[in-house]
Amino acid sequence: MARLTGSRSSFYTHYPGHADFNSYIKCNFVIYFEGSFQELNNSKKRITPSMKWEQVKEILGDSGRAAIQTQGSSSNPFGSTFVYGYQNNAFEVMKNGYIATVTLFKYNLDAAR
Q1: How many of the other CB atoms lie within 10 Å of CB of 87?
Q2: How far apart are CA 72 and CA 97, in angstroms?
Q3: Has residue 79 got a pLDDT over 70?
Q4: 104: CB partners within 8 A, 6+ apart
Q5: Is the pLDDT assigned to residue 64 strictly greater than 80?
Q6: pTM of model > 0.70
Q7: Which of 6, 29, 35, 40 lies closest to 91, judged by CA?
Q8: Burial, 106: exposed, middle or buried (Cβ in 10 Å; 0-12, 13-18, 19+)?
């Protein structure tokens, strides 16, 4: 029998105006795309918590329509957010265009032992 295993990491930008504001500690992440570390350190192909969604789309390309996340709209005064998916990652974006959460994930299908 095959077994599905996975891992997930979520990074919170801690922007005011998000339902999770002040619930998590801000993660000052840097996500690099393509090339060596030295090339990327001076490149524009990296994503940081201070970037707006339009800047991320310039790096990754358009992801299509977003899923709308309401987070229990009756108890959330900030309104819904939008979740955009790419292969092995998802970006939760607030209405003001800032990233609220980045989730990276990987799944493996292990063969029978």
Answers
A1: 6
A2: 20
A3: yes
A4: 8, 9, 10, 11, 31, 88, 89
A5: yes
A6: yes
A7: 29
A8: exposed
